[in-house]
Amino acid sequence: MAEALRRRVIILGSTGSIGTQALEVIHRNPERFEVVGLAAGKNTDLARSQADALGLDHRRVVFGAADATALIGDVSCDVVLNGITGSVGLLPTLAALESGATLALANKESLIVGGNLVLDARVRPDQIVPVDSEHSALAQALMAGSHSEVAKLIVTASGGPLRGRTAESLAGVTPEEALAHPTWNMGLVVTTNSATLVNKGLEVIEAHLLFDIPFSRIEVTVHPQSVVHSLVEFHDGSTLAQASPPDMRVPIAWGLSWPDRIPGVMPGIDWSESHTWTFEPLDEAVFKAVSMAKDAGERGGTFPAVFNAANEQAVYAFHRGEIPLPGIIEVISHALDHHQPQGMSVEAVLEAERVARDVADAFITAQRS
Fold it and tell me: Distance between CA 19 and CA 83 in Å, rounded?
């Protein structure tokens, strides 16, 4: 690829799991990418070390979501990879879209809480490229047919570290058990969300928004091997699946290089060996987060923002030992029940989140007394 065609990339959340793996992909493909900005959270030493390895001026290394938003406005780029965790990624997501850059979106929360505000900020229909492995898989499989030919989307779930547990046993789950994911290495919030299946509920909302498929035609299936990342069933009865080893570098690379593929990102599946892949229904009586998320998504507006904000507060409370694991779902339910929507705007979303966090915190405090 000619030097002039290198894509200029800003990485938000550069010190996290997504950011560090993105930098691995970029380091291996210097002819394709030039990193022109980094944004991180609290890990200032690592971010500056990353900049040094890239030969990047430290003035293009920022910390916090507000400075990340400003960085996008100050530095011209072709791709913004948003790997920030949490809804604080909303304003950077909007800034990336408004800049005209391709948004490689790993920060699902910004789309979920922003909803149509994010979709309406696009300057072209194909501007958002999903980086979540499930949504990357759906996007790839959907290329095989038209929107009108889609019967359903099937989002796969590993089942997390608590797959097969009874509802009664969840009350005794420790933070260490909740973080012991059998497949993926993720941060505290996302890994806990995988244990409660909140993460899968958020991904269902994300799939609805990205692909404009009704919630009634989005299903979840449990696939512990995490090799088939999602499936699309078409109305003629055929189903297409995207499969690759459980490694985020493939969807990250596709997000950075879309619509092209980068050769040799990682070894593929070894078809000379035997494989057993299993699929099983989600036990919604034990893991209620997916149906709760679907309901919040159906109600729309700021309800998904409330779902997400209350969950974040509850996750931190669980890890502080203030509530049991099932208490996370109770906190979300309480916040949703008390939500009074006030229209849909950036200001309304931020206010709904603020109130939801206050309501969640008050409920958590009441549960302890």
Answer: 6
Amino acid at 100: G
Tens-place pLDDT, residues 188-230? 888 899 999 999 999 999 999 999 999 999 999 999 999 999 9
Same domain, 176 and 49: no
Mark whether 212 and 113 lie in a shared domain: no
Q: Are strands 33-40 and 128-130 parallel, antiparallel or unpaired?
A: unpaired
Residues 6+ apart with CB under 8 A from 184: 158, 191, 194, 226, 246, 248
152 and 72 together in one domain = no
Final residue belonging to a domain, choices 229, 259, 288: 288
Query: In this structure, what token pair is assigned to residue 27?
Result: 């380091």
What DSSP string describes 70-93?
Answer: HHHHHS--SEEEE---SGGGHHHH
Which of 182, 157, 179 minimizes the C-alpha distance to 286? 157
What tokens does 291 get?
A: 């149906």
- Cβ-Cβ contacts under 8 Å for 275 (sequence gap 6 or more): 227, 269
Which structural domain range is residue 149 located in?
A: 136-245+279-288
221 forms beta bridges with: 156, 281
- Estimate the crossing angle of helix 346-368 against helix 303-319, to 10 degrees: 40
305: CB partners within 8 A, 6+ apart: 87, 112, 113, 349, 352, 353, 356
Over the stretch 107-130, which tens digit does the pLDDT of each residue have? Answer: 999 999 999 999 999 999 999 999
